[in-house]
């Protein structure tokens, strides 16, 4: 074997192993309870993990096979923008709410497991809330309902 190759091979293998271990290890996210107020004044709570950094947002619910009812993940962005999500490496069907900076739900969509098709907000928003698919519908949550974002304002 070429001496140059034999010296670099261990470093290449080490880099591959390090890369694989970094991508498969999930770092626990902070959690909070968010309150959604429906048009009729009824309040519904969802226990949400908070994804506020680029790394946390990029990983999201990837690789999770079971997401319990009544739980979700709130994605926080620095400024209002058109957001786009997909379901790469995400086996559990999800629903997503795009939420503006005032807490108003602007869009609701269902997402298919493993789909690489982008699901885009129709207006600039600051937040996205993912929950198990059908949770919004089951709880009678609709566009224009409001989410109290006070628990996540400091992230």
Task: Give a description of the structure.
The chain is of the alpha+beta class. 21% of the residues lie in helices and 35% in strands. It is built from three helices and nine strands. The protein has helices at residues 3-24, 54-59, 135-138; strands spanning 31-37, 43-51, 71-81, 84-85, 94-99, 105-111, 119-120, 125-132, 146-148. The strands form two sheets. Strands 6-5-8-3-2-1-9 form a seven-stranded mixed β-sheet. Strand 2 (43-51), helix 2 and strand 3 (71-81) form a beta-alpha-beta unit. The protein starts with a helix and ends in a 7-residue tail after the last strand. The model is unreliable at 4-24 (pLDDT under 50).
Which stretches of 5+ consecutive residues score pLDDT under 50? 4-24
Gap from first CA to last CA:
53 Å
Overall body shape: globular
Number of strands: 9
Output the helix-strand order: HEEHEEEEEEHE
The strand line-up of the biggest sheet is 6-5-8-3-2-1-9
Structural class: alpha+beta
Helical amount:
10-25%
């Amino acid at each position: 074997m070429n001496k140059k190759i034999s010296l670099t091979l261990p470093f290449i293998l080490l880099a591959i192993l390090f890369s694989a271990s970094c991508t498969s290890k999930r770092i626990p996210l902070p959690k909070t309870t968010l309150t959604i107020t429906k048009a009729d004044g009824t309040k519904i709570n969802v226990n949400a993990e908070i994804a506020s950094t680029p790394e946390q947002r990029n990983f999201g619910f990837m690789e999770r096979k079971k997401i319990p009812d009544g739980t979700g993940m709130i994605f926080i962005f620095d400024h209002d923008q058109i957001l786009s999500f997909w379901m790469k490496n995400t086996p559990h069907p999800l629903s997503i709410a795009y939420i503006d900076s005032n807490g108003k739900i602007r869009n609701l969509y269902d997402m298919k497991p493993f789909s690489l098709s982008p699901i885009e907000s129709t207006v600039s928003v600051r937040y996205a809330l993912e929950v198990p698919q059908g949770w919004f519908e089951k709880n009678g949550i609709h566009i224009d309902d409001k989410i109290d974002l006070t628990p996540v304002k400091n992230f």
